[in-house]
Amino acid sequence: MRVIYDFLIEPKLPDKLRPLRALAYNLWWSWSHDVVELFRLIDHDLWESSGHNPVLILGSVSQERLEELAVDEGFLDYMEYVFRNFNNYIQADTWFAKQNPGNTHTFIAYFSMEYGLSECMPIYSGGLGVLAGDLLKTASDMGIPMVGVGLLYQQGYFQQYLNNGGWQQESYPINDFFNLPIQPVLLNDGNPLQITVDVAGRLTVVQVWRLDVGRIHLYLLDTNLPQNHPEEQQITNQLYGGDKEMRIRQEIILGIGGIRALYAMGIKPTVCHINEGHAAFAALERIRLLMKETGMTFLEAMQASRGGNIFTTHTPVPAGFDVFEPQLIEKYFSGYLSELGITLHKLTALGRIRPANQSEPFNMAIMATTNSAYINGVSKLHALTAAKMIKNALPGIPENEIPILPITNGVHQQSWVSLDMAQLLDRYLGSSWRREPMNEIVWKRIDIIPDAELWRTHERRRERLVAFARSKLRGQLAMQGASNEAIARADEVLNPGAFTIGFARRFATYKRATLLLSDPNRLRSILMNPEKPVQIIFAGKAHPRDDEGKEFIRKIVQFAQKENLRERIVFLENYNMNIARYLVQGVDVWLNTPRRPLEASGTSGMKVVINGGLNISIPDGWWAEAYKPEVGWAIGAGEEYQDEAYQDAVESQALFDLLEKEIIPLFFDRGRDGLPRGWISRMKVSMRELGPLFNSHRMLRNYAELFYMPALSHYYALSFDNFAASKSLAAWKQKLMKAWNELMIEKVQTDGQRSYKVGESIKVSAIVQLGSLSPEDVHVELFAGPLNEQMEIIEGAGIVMDLVKKESDGKAVYSGSYRCQKSGRYGASVRILPYHSLFSSKHEMGLILWA
């Protein structure tokens, strides 16, 4: 039957229970054990069956139960205590306010394709989204003036279940927006805020929803509206669903629609943080709006907006970047080009490694790089990997100078620490670990925690993990139609006292979930040792089109069944944030086996640290910089292989050796009191050394100090006096581009020596033809450093040479020196770079002339 009138029914809360609504609609509850306990008290079973959704609980619990609670003094007192803490949190002074007193105008807009904030908001698929969620929570804690922008998916990412053979199946349940902790953004007349975006010539209406994350607002865009064409309604249907055309539509809505939505609410961000290339089109919309507001040309507006753009890449391989064929860009941007005042070729050139190559696909990561003054990778190793991936876009620039900084990811510790561990830390570290998670002095107090207390706390969490896994397994078997006998046997699976290994992540093939299965006999002997029981809990999803990843899951499930290891190996279906919490809070060791250097960062192992678990991992991503022998174990020494089969063989045997000879013996080495003192010592060192470093407060402080505040200053400098500096800089760049070919390094001279002592300096002079440029337009640099086997300078450093004199014919003489600080074979050269005081980095233009 067709609906002719729709309306909303909301729960009728007694007046005394009104704080429950405010608490339910702010995701602060997702990192407050007190709020979670409050909603559990309303109805424990409903809390679990609702997927931990307080809004759904308030809409589902009986009116009689609400009336009971309204006269329950114990419940009311606890609710008031929790609500008071919430208000104190919202109103408290923050780190950003203390660092930037009087700064009330900064707005940082954070764009991400997915956000992992809670399992009840299934608009995330994995690490990228969970990282984005942790970042917003941390921005709230630190008081950073940020808004988030994303898409509101009707189905979100898929739900996973396994058939009897262990093959992954997918289902796509519909998200009921009116029973989620989101609310439509309303206009003054009470109607929902809607904006429009041209999608391939069709005007698409986009509704804006708001999700509160502590002090932060996350705005989510929704195209599933009756006034849209069915194709456009599907844009926000699934996360990472559909083909290339669906992907470009989603990214147009996210980037262009996201900026328009912010402007429609009166939010004009000075800084835009683009989390992965999906949102790169936001840079285009910033340019268009600046052109409209100021009358600037495209190049002038691009120069102005670029100074306030930040790009974070998480991708470790070029194939991970979104690329679109030129024909697709033409289809979706032909109408937009007239507003930008540029040709299709100029637009596509912004997203190409070789701008003049008109057959090269449009690369969203290159687009984001071209339009961002600040770029970072998500670990030290990943920044080096990312530099290699884009070096062809910056020919002639040494890899160690490609302007990609490392800002290693971190986790929001309060979202991932167990209640038991949090209470233990409160007792011995005080509440400072919550307010100042970067404070190393606070973390040193880990050492005063009695070994017995730390161990018992950890054992309780392992017991709860086992109970949770058994419950999940019973549900999985029931869904598969297993016999009552098989379902009953699930209660005997796993051992609460056994050494427990956790492996849970996206089942991409490079993560090598089946590495342990490469030697089944050796694995069986480890798992079936009656004196030293060992068990493994797996979880994770493969992309619906990744049959190789699905095959990994099937192999694990069938190995457990075939080898009669069901009590020792468990695969938990439908990996989500709730399963992740139980795992990171309860495992003894977190296993990570990617092919180096394909793990950009990884954060699951960081969540284990705060809960006292240890890591055993390939030294890739964050572990490459975190590892030292006293905090965990590294599989190999960071070698990289060409032969993948050989790599698997070597690293699987290294993993087995570590388990058999070091890890398992240490875990079961018990004193007379039954405590594994050596193991507990490592737990403490791991928490003490890694806790203050690998948290999202440190990460966001890095972003604030290295990017946000410099970007803000840069943007203000460019926008001052009606963008006079931006217009001047754009004109200067055009002048320099035209005159660049006039430059020539005519002669380089040294003092003729072939050998120097440490501490001595090599002196170099150069005669340079500047053509129509002046000395102020360039920096002439002496570039020197150690040589490799191919006589190439590696890890070289550029030293600005002094102008000695300028001739009337355009020539100039420069001199400089390089101090020899270490022995070895070195080389030197001379180069010319463009220079302007408003550059964000010396390689902003990607131009370089070598002698």
What does this protein structure show overall?
With 851 residues, the protein is α/β, with parallel strands linked by helices. The protein has 4 domains: 15-91, no CATH class; 105-160 and 168-406, Rossmann fold (3-Layer(aba) Sandwich); 452-672, Glycogen Phosphorylase B (Rossmann fold), CATH 3.40.50; 741-850, Sandwich (Immunoglobulin-like). 41% of the residues lie in helices and 17% in strands. Strands 1, 2, 5, 6, 7, 8, 9, 10, 13 and 14 form a 10-stranded mixed sheet that branches. Strand 6 and strand 7 (202-213) form a beta hairpin. The radius of gyration is 29 Å and the shape is globular.
Write the layout of secondary structure elements.
Layout: H1 19-24, H2 33-42, H3 44-49, H4 54-60, H5 63-70, H6 73-91, H7 95-99, E1 108-111, H8 127-142, E2 146-151, E3 159-162, E4 168-171, E5 183-184, E6 194-199, E7 202-213, E8 216-222, H9 230-233, H10 244-264, E9 271-275, H11 281-294, H12 298-306, E10 309-312, E11 323-324, H13 326-340, H14 344-349, E12 362-363, H15 364-370, E13 374-377, H16 380-390, E14 405-406, H17 413-416, H18 419-429, H19 432-435, H20 440-443, H21 451-479, H22 484-489, E15 499-504, H23 520-527, E16 534-539, H24 547-562, E17 569-572, H25 577-586, E18 589-592, H26 604-610, E19 614-617, H27 623-626, E20 632-634, H28 644-667, H29 677-690, H30 696-739, E21 744-750, E22 761-769, E23 778-786, E24 797-800, E25 802-806, E26 811-819, E27 826-834, E28 849-850
Parallel strand pairs: 1-2, 1-9, 2-8, 9-10, 10-13, 13-14, 15-16, 15-18, 16-17, 18-19, 19-20
Antiparallel strand pairs: 3-4, 5-7, 6-7, 7-8, 11-12, 21-22, 22-26, 23-24, 23-27, 25-26, 27-28
